[in-house]
Amino acid sequence: MIGSLRGRITAKSPPQLTVEVGGVGYELEAPMSTFYHLPAAGAEVQLLTHLVVREDAHVLYGFASEEERRLFRALIRVSGVGPKIALALLSGISVAAFAQCVQNEDVAALTRVPGVGRKTAERLIVEMRDRLKAQADSAATVAAPTGSSAESEAYGALVALGYRPAEATRLLKAAGPGTHSTEELIRRALQGAARE
Fold first, then answer.
1. What angle do CA 31, 71, 25 make, to 5 degrees?
2. Is domain 66-141 annotated with CATH 1.10.150.20?
């Protein structure tokens, strides 16, 4: 998986751009929220990425911030919402405004985004309410677990393995206090999960 790119912008034509990294030009699609922060063609840029593999193509998406990428990844898990609708949502509404729409159950605001109909907006509100709450809870719990970067890395690894943020936090707390390496924390958390 390609997690990020740092290179020179060789072409910009929303929603597509090309970033040259070490002589290789990567074509990306990015939301308008990212385009607003991009420097001019020829300048250096670093973007976080997400690769979507389909039968007919591999499409790389670029984001200016981790919040945008995290929301994109959550959106494409919603049934009936693909990368194009997720990109349209990120282009038409900020991450904070989207969270506010979901919290307030504001279907009308979501349907103003091109490609989002009433049923899709309602599904987004229902499915994203819990995910956004879990993300906010995990951000609060993991913001500074104990000041340990090993604990933060272990948390990220557990979430990447498919554990819910609250579950990952619980498993790490159960792994026991003390100074452990990232690998040791992950091993203990997985052993604890296997015992349950």
1. 45
2. yes
10-45 exposure pattern, b = at least 16 Cβ within 10 A, e = fewer: eebeebebbbeeeeeebebbbbebbbeebeeeeeeb
What type of residue is 16?
Answer: Q
> Which residues of the chain form CATH 1.10.150.20?
66-141
128-172 pLDDT per residue, tens: 887 777 666 555 544 434 445 777 777 777 777 777 777 888 888
Q: Is the overall model pTM greater than 0.90, yes or no?
A: no
The H or E element spanning position 153 is helix 149-160
- HSE of 31, CA atoms in CB hemisphere, 13 A: 27
CATH of 4-63, one of 3.30.160.270, 2.40.160.20, 3.40.50.150, 2.40.50.140: 2.40.50.140
> Which 8-state DSSP code applies to residue 86?
H
Rounded distance between C-alpha atoms, residue 10 and residue 18, angstroms: 6
